[in-house]
Design brief:
- The protein is mainly beta.
- 5% of the residues lie in helices and 46% in strands.
- The chain has 1 helix and 23 strands.
Length: 320
């Protein structure tokens, strides 16, 4: 149910729908945009994405279409190895070919918002999507592969200078055959288990610091498991710091799953439930994954990160 140019107010939190994207605002500050009708080329595996995401003080914490990986889109649900198909973008890695352009880049197609609701907690959108294979050269529509029901909610966290994006996806196989969801690592490339809810940070965040219950560090967090993980980076121009924190719902299949965490080269972080093992998606047996992503001004100490994780977990637990 998409309503063009509509604005809804929930106390200080509001949203506007321009017919292609939802923009969420706190007071006069835009904090999130969700593009549900992208115009990306097929090679980039067109899919809805969040960008920009911004702290309450106005610092952007995402980048979209960086020159090194133009298929990285702020924050998005993206999977590189879905059977024979690529819903990540760019080249596909397989045991047979390594990285190669295989003309297999599918699309996650927005069908409708089934609801957009406001409550005391925040604003929640429910969306129906259809995943299709790359169209044939004849111009025929791509094969129907996955019907997805997606929900996300924008919520302000009490008593802290932070807000949370709650995300839930349920993927239902409609292809007529079992689909194995994996990663380049399940295809033989070491430590390349990306695929899931993936965030790409600003270039100035390169060299930032990860933090979880295991302590602090950088690239050594790649492939680790923990209920939550945080990253702090520093901005150009303002020289302020911002933090992003992922919390995984422990009801997710395989939880706690591995994290794809990189600080050097560029800053990125993502849930990776298919990092090192192919997960079957069978007809009539949908898979559901839920996360909270917290956007906070400033750096966070161990205690502050743990407190944000508890607040985000509470928001997830209370999200009907």
């Amino acid at each position: 149910m998409t309503t063009t140019a509509q604005t809804i107010l929930t106390d200080a939190l509001s949203y506007t729908d321009d017919g292609r994207s939802l923009t969420f605002t706190v007071g006069a500050q835009d904090i999130a945009s969700y593009t549900y009708l992208p115009t990306d080329e097929q090679y980039e595996s067109p899919r809805p994405f969040f960008h920009p995401l911004t702290t309450l003080e106005g610092d952007d914490v995402t980048i979209s279409r960086p020159w090194d990986h133009v298929w990285h889109k702020g924050l998005s649900w993206a999977l590189p190895n879905v059977g024979e198909h690529n819903f990540w973008g760019g080249a596909t890695y397989t045991r047979e070919t390594g990285y190669a352009d295989l003309d297999n880049n599918g699309a996650m197609n927005h069908e409708a918002f089934t609801s957009i609701e406001q409550s005391e907690a925040g604003i929640t959108a429910a969306e129906a999507l259809l995943w299709t294979a790359q169209p044939a050269e004849t111009g025929q529509e791509g094969q129907r592969l996955i019907a997805e029901n997606r929900r996300f909610s924008i919520q302000l966290l009490p008593a802290v200078n932070a807000w949370a994006l709650l995300f839930e996806t349920t993927m239902d196989n409609v292809s007529g055959a079992e689909i194995g969801i994996g990663s380049p690592t399940t295809e033989g490339r070491d430590n390349a288990g990306y695929g899931g809810l993936f965030w790409r940070g600003p270039r100035s965040f390169t060299g930032g610091e990860f933090r979880s219950e295991a302590g602090t560090g950088a690239d050594e967090f790649m492939g680790t498991r923990s209920p939550w993980i945080a990253f702090t980076g520093q901005h150009d121009v303002t020289c302020r710091k911002s933090s992003i924190l992922f919390v995984e719902d422990q009801s997710n299949p395989g939880a706690s799953n591995q994290w794809f965490a990189r600080s050097s080269m560029f800053a990125c972080l993502g849930s990776a439930p298919f990092f090192s093992q192919v997960v079957p998606l069978r007809e009539g047996e949908p898979l559901t994954y839920r996360y909270a992503v917290v956007i906070a001004d400033g750096s966070v100490s161990d205690d502050q990160a743990a407190a944000l994780a508890r607040a985000a977990k509470g928001a997830l637990d209370g999200w009907a």
